[in-house]
Design a protein that fits this description.
Layout: H1 2-9, E1 20-27, H2 33-46, E2 51-55, H3 73-80, H4 84-90, E3 100-107, E4 112-119, E5 124-130, E6 144-149, H5 152-157, H6 161-164, H7 167-185, H8 187-190, E7 193-196
Domain Phosphoribulokinase/uridine kinase: 22-196
GO molecular function, one term: kinase activity
Keywords: Kinase, Transferase
């Protein structure tokens, strides 16, 4: 894994003093993004590269905005899971110019969002991890993009036993949205580096 991380990160633009670089870690559900990010963060810290990590799933909206909306389930997941324009304006557009971010952060237990203030160092590698990161509205903000590619059957086997039982939800919500993303955005082709996971 360490060698894979080294190869993936070696082409990222060198971080200079007073600079921020935005790195995207994209991939479909259960493709290994979280594991990769954890190991990459450890590796970069060894190299004394300051890292700020963001998980895009921390900024999803409340359930009432993404379930039972009269839209098809795949559309809810792809288009309504996040407030895409709000994140563009208040997250992506602020990453390189603001000293701190004020982000609506989601709490799963209470199904609520609350504003969280996140300070940003002047010099930092801003690592963003999540699914559908290369959608058209966000794609231009990244300086470098890594995509983790993994077959659906392998990803599905990584789900918990209880989650696997709801196959209909995967078929109607998750997999259709993933197919739409792959067909319309071509994330593997758009990425700067692809890892087969």
């Amino acid at each position: 894994m360490k060698e894979t991380i080294q190869l993936a990160l070696q082409s990222i633009p060198k971080l200079e003093s007073g600079q921020r670089i935005i790195l995207g870690i994209d991939g479909l559900s259960r493709s290994g993004k979280t594991t990769f990010v954890k190991k990459a963060q450890e590796y970069l810290q060894e190299k004394q590269v300051p890292v700020c990590l963001f998980h895009i799933d921390d900024y999803i909206v409340e359930r009432k905005k993404r379930y039972n909306t009269q839209h098809e389930e795949w559309y809810e997941y792809y288009q309504l899971q996040w407030d895409i324009e709000w994140l563009k304006e208040n997250f992506f557009m602020e990453l390189k110019k603001s000293k701190e971010l004020h982000l609506l952060t989601y709490d799963d237990h209470s199904d609520t969002q609350s504003v969280r203030t996140i300070p940003l160092p002047e010099t930092c590698l801003l690592m963003i991890e999540g699914v559908f990161l290369q959608r058209e509205e966000w794609r231009s903000f990244y300086d470098y993009m890594i995509y983790l590619d993994c077959p659906r059957d392998k990803r599905f086997q990584r789900e918990s036993a209880s989650t696997k039982q709801n196959l209909e939800k995967f078929e109607n919500r998750y997999w259709k949205a993933e197919e739409y993303y792959v067909e319309t955005v071509s994330p593997m082709e758009q990425a700067d580096y692809v890892i087969q996971s």
